[in-house]
């Protein structure tokens, strides 16, 4: 029995690798195998080319459960496979890019960004994405380019293993990258695309801390508003959050308690106690019904108990 030609790559069915894919901090240029290149390609595609809610739904259910959105994983796999495997003759993509075909321009830049046509060169790739963002192209394509620039600014040039060991000039460069990433994230949103990379920007407290000296208060406030809208729509909470999702009290992560239900392990809301969880249950259940696995309407307190971290 032969496998389906449209079967998704193995990492799209592995919850641990999915988590790595979805929250990958940098593109991995240490391995040049086809699998790793496809992984890098999937990272940028899912973070920059599609709306944040769509990307979130692709990765937020428990694999192999009845409500696992397998069709969505086929969607992301099918798009990546079609865009890369059937167009991997980069010479043809280059020809299209030279003709100013915007789809080929984005495709060629994306392949350069993940190392398909030689070593990664983020600076050169960013210049090429800027040509699309600032060029006479459809709004939706310019929005994708802005999200791709945001991704490269935020994740494209990793520091050393430990920030405290980094050179001060590297730390300054990183702060400047955060600032620039916030600007391009704002551009992407205003052009109509709230991608998942924009959600990541919105969740970074370091961006908010730059508000005063950055002089971009309006843009930061706008990004925060879009981030809050996304959280309200999906029930999203950043991994290892330090605040109770109901009352907002801040505590060390290990002092908070996770939801004990079957919601996705990486995005379980955390609470300071049972009272807050009980008060928040109606809102959380609505997110479960729309996003995660279904809960019984008459579930009792014991079935919704919190678990310690």
In short:
The chain is an all-alpha fold and 309 residues long. It has helices spanning 15-22, 34-48, 52-59, 70-85, 90-98, 102-114, 122-134, 139-155, 168-190, 196-203, 205-209, 211-214, 217-234, 274-290, and strands spanning 257-259, 270-271, 306-308. Helix 3 (52-59) packs across helix 10 (196-203) and helix 6 (102-114) packs antiparallel against helix 7 (122-134).
Can you describe what's shown?
- The chain has 309 residues and is an all-alpha fold.
- Helix content is 56%, strand content 3%.
- It has two domains: 10-234, no CATH class; 253-308, no CATH class.
- A three-stranded antiparallel sheet has the order 2-1-3.
- The chain is elongated.
- Mean pLDDT is 67; it is low at 1-32, 62-74, 158-169 and 290-308.
- It comes from Agrocybe chaxingu.
Note the topology.
Elements (H helix, E strand, L loop, with lengths): L14 H8 L11 H15 L3 H8 L10 H16 L4 H9 L3 H13 L7 H13 L4 H17 L12 H23 L5 H8 L1 H5 L1 H4 L2 H18 L22 E3 L10 E2 L2 H17 L15 E3 L1
Antiparallel strand pairs: 1-2, 1-3
Helix pairs in contact: 2-4, 3-10, 5-6, 6-7, 6-8, 7-8, 8-9, 9-10, 9-13, 10-13
């Amino acid at each position: 029995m032969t496998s389906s030609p449209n079967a998704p790559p193995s990492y799209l069915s592995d919850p641990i690798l999915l988590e790595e894919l979805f929250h990958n901090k940098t593109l991995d240029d240490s391995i040049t195998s086809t699998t790793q290149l496809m992984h890098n390609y999937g990272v940028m595609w899912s973070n920059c080319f599609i709306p944040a809610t769509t990307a979130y739904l692709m990765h937020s259910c428990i694999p192999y459960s009845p409500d696992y959105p397998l069709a969505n994983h086929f969607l992301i796999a099918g798009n990546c496979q079609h865009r890369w495997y059937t167009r991997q003759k980069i010479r043809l993509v280059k020809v299209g890019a030279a003709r100013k075909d915007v789809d080929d321009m984005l495709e060629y830049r994306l392949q350069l960004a993940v190392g398909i046509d030689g070593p990664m060169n983020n600076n050169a790739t960013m210049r090429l994405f800027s040509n699309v963002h600032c060029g006479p192209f459809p709004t939706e394509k310019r929005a994708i380019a802005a999200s791709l620039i945001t991704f490269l600014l935020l994740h494209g040039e990793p520091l050393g293993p430990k920030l405290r060991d980094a050179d001060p000039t590297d730390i300054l460069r990183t702060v400047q990258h955060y600032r620039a990433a916030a600007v391009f994230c704002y551009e992407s949103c205003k052009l109509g695309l709230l991608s998942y990379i924009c959600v990541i920007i919105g969740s970074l407290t370091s961006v908010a801390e730059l508000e005063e000296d950055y002089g971009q208060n309006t843009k930061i406030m706008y990004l925060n508003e879009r981030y809050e809208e996304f959280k309200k729509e999906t029930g999203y909470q950043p991994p290892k959050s330090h605040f109770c999702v109901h009352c907002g009290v801040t505590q060390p992560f290990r002092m908070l308690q996770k939801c004990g239900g079957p919601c996705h392990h990486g995005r379980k809301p955390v609470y300071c106690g049972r009272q807050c969880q009980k008060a928040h249950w109606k809102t959380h259940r609505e997110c479960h019904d729309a996003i995660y696995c279904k809960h019984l309407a008459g579930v009792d307190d014991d079935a919704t108990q919190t678990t310690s971290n």
